[in-house]
Amino acid sequence: PVQRLPEMQESRLKLPILSEEQSVMETINDNMVTIICGETGSGKTTQVPQFLYEAGYAHTNGIIAVTEPRRVAAISMSNRVAKELNLTEREVSYQIRYEGNVTPDTKIKFMTDGVLLKEVQKDFLLTKYSVVIIDEAHERSVYTDILIGLLSRIVPLRNKQGNRLKLIIMSATLRVEDFTENRRLFRIEPPVVKVDSRQFPVTIHFNKRTPLEDYLGEAFKKVCKIHRTLPEGGILVFVTGQQEVHTLCKKLRQTFPFEGKAEQKLKKSRRKKKESKTEILPKINLDNYSIEPVDEEAEREADDSDQEIEDNFMEGDDDVTSQLGEDLQTGGTTEPLYVLPLYSLLSKDKQSKVFDPPPKGCRLCVVATNVAETSLTIPDIKYVVDTGKVKTKFYDKVTGVSTFKITWTSKASGNQRAGRAGRTGPGHCYRLYSSAVYNDDFEKFSLAEIIRRPVDDLVLQMKYMNIDRIVNFPFPTPPDDEQVKAAETLLVSLGALTEPIKSVRMKDLKKTPITKITPLGKVMACFPVSPRYAKMLALGHQHDLLSYVVAIVAGLSVQEVFVEMQKPPDTDQEQDDFRSQIQYMSQVKKLWAGTGHSMLLGDLMVLLKAIGSAEYQGCTIEFCQKHGLRYKAMKEVRKLRAQLTNTVNMVIPDANICLDPKLKPPSDIQAKLIRQIILAGLADHVARRFPDPPPDADETLKKRKHAYQCTELDEPVFIHPFSVLYKQKPEFIVYQHIEETSKLYMKGISAIE
Ligand code: ADP
Ligand code: MG
């Protein structure tokens, strides 16, 4: 029997879904598959697992699984549900890519969708579970989509065995036709339970005109205006990314200072950082990466308050990229505003701050990315400021070139955002775009992720499960043929799949030939990284190179290890800071690049040495800050390195590598061999420099100055200026990927002799 604390019970009773408990449970009991739709905040994620728990689902033939597309949600929801049930994390636990607290006593397990997909590969029938809840299905993340496809087959199989499994799909929008009307997916249309939300009216205010560029400045002005002129109530601002979150938070804090203790501490460490910026280059001993003594006091402070400095560091990133002109800093009210950032990569503690009531007499203002759209509900928001923008990674199906673009979001997500203002009372949503733009330029819905990204990793995982005819798989939204073909071609060239084989079975004779997984492919499928990198790991076994390859692959698999400045700064001071920072970083990089074959390994040697050095120093914030490394990313690299090391030892029996915190830099010969392994994973990512155009060359030829020709594209491509090989421009190079910003830039360069 569950013994909830009285205050928990009280807050639960306010949730709309609680009055629907009976109909929700009846539908689940009577059907194999149930879809539950309800507005964000109606209580789906926190309550449905509790309904199931109380109905005995975790006691009979398995435990309760809940998948989330985001790590943050998996962690914070497991904590919340444990609290509400008055149970410990031993019983209500979570598992994400690198960590978890699952025990043999676990009854409710929150996990990312990727984790459950891995489990399907080990135990196709998911026999551990009596019920699987796929949460946030409206987000249409790739793994969610695949899981739904797989579960549509697993559920009937389990039922046939008499060991029933229930599937529950939860969505924050009513748009579930992709699941209900797709007869290939579910032969019998699953019932949809709609949870009425107690939504208060939200008044929508469109801008008369749409600002073309400076939506962040516009958002700043709007928040100022709300705070100065409108009655109390929290403000939630939607921007597109972490950097924008910090830029805006900083401006708002400057304008409406909130002088708490934490704030003072922040300022102190901010001064510290300013000083450290102008310091001269430390001497790095290249034999063991050790670095000449660092400022001891600073180090102590780092130990003192990890979190505060981290925050400050993150903020520092924006110093030079601020889009907000100083002129916006008008005087007037200095009533405190309690400003909090919210984005997926933010630490658990910081994230949970938004659930706490703001300090007395302060107005809460949360500056958030898409996370706040549906995954997390922030209490007491009365005003929403919506830039209407979203940052999405686009990728060219044929060439694989990726771009991050900031575009208009969809009507559906615009309405979700507005809805955040009406949870606790009538609210207002300020859209920083005109109604004409909304009507004409906004798509109805956002696209499912699966048609926006390469599918080589998915195809490999599916082949590993012996799903050979990818086209026959019951995807909620199938990827298109071109995508699948590109993936198969790559996997065949990497040796993970066989050349297409014609089936010998009579009834299959007319079908197109299929590719099957090879023994190498099976090894590769065990690594939680892109197939190209998995290939490098599988090869790294030779010549004692595995530890290095593991470190490089871990670094390549985590985004933005180096702090990169994307935008030129606004003010002169920032310009100077920017220049000295860039200069300093390029010096460090040159040092790390070394000589001989190390230097030819280029950006990957820099990455390897950065990881090695950081690890040698115990991966401190201070070290990362000083050397242009993103502390958060480095921590992730560290976890991934540990995980890959374990996996390597498991799947390559005589590998026997250990996680060496004092990994010596590779020798010249080793560096050369590492380059060969890199090349094996990227054989199709080779580029050759165009000959220098003669002085009298025409326009087309002139464009080829310093340009490269690669196999995938007709247009000239360039080495990114942040590469250590930028000046050198070797004739033949191999690159990780091409990103389009002002030009087509190759990133992650190594030279080929
Ligand atoms: P849904 O999944 O339908 O969007 P949730 O179950 O996530 O809804 O949230 C229900 C309510 O629980 C929300 O009002 C939210 O404010 C509250 N809540 C969720 N997590 C926490 C938490 N960690 N601390 C306090 N309240 C929370
Ligand atoms: Mg939810």
Question: Can you walk me through this structure?
Answer:
The chain has 753 residues and is an alpha/beta fold. The protein contains 28 helices and 22 strands. The strands form 5 sheets. Strands 3-4-2-5-6-1-7 form a 7-stranded parallel beta sheet, with helices on both faces. Helix 8 (215-229) packs parallel to helix 9 (242-255). The radius of gyration is 27 Å and the shape is globular. It starts with 5 loop residues before the first helix and ends with a strand. Mean pLDDT is 84; it is low at 273-332. It binds adenosine-5'-diphosphate and magnesium ion. Magnesium ion binds next to helix 3.
Supply the key terms.
six-stranded parallel sheet, 22 strands, globular, 753 residues, alpha/beta, seven-stranded parallel sheet, binds adenosine-5'-diphosphate, binds magnesium ion
Write a brief structural summary:
By secondary structure, the chain is of the alpha/beta class.
- What's the total number of strands? 22
Distance between the termini: 70 Å
Content of β-strand: 5-15%
Provide the list of bound ligands, each named once: adenosine-5'-diphosphate, magnesium ion
| Biggest sheet architecture | 7 strands, parallel
Helix tally equals 28
Outline type: globular
Radius of gyration: 27 Å
Mean pLDDT: 84
Strands of the biggest beta sheet: in what spatial order? Answer: 3-4-2-5-6-1-7
Structural class: alpha/beta
Helix % is: 40-55%
* Poorly predicted tracts of residues: 273-332
SSE layout and pairings?
Blueprint: H1 6-13, H2 21-30, E1 33-38, H3 44-54, E2 63-68, H4 71-85, E3 92-95, E4 108-112, H5 113-122, E5 129-134, H6 142-160, E6 166-171, H7 177-180, E7 192-195, E8 202-206, H8 215-229, E9 234-238, H9 242-255, H10 261-277, H11 296-304, H12 306-319, E10 337-342, H13 348-352, E11 363-368, H14 371-374, E12 381-386, E13 389-395, E14 402-408, H15 411-419, E15 427-431, H16 435-441, H17 456-464, H18 481-494, H19 519-525, H20 531-539, H21 546-557, H22 572-593, H23 596-601, H24 603-616, H25 621-626, H26 631-651, H27 668-681, E16 686-689, H28 699-702, E17 708-710, E18 718-719, E19 732-734, E20 737-740, E21 744-747, E22 750-752
Parallel strand pairs: 1-6, 1-7, 2-4, 2-5, 3-4, 5-6, 8-15, 9-11, 9-12, 10-11, 12-15, 18-21
Antiparallel strand pairs: 13-14, 16-17, 16-19, 19-22, 20-21
Bound molecules: adenosine-5'-diphosphate (ADP) and magnesium ion.
The site of magnesium ion has 3 residues, from helix 3.
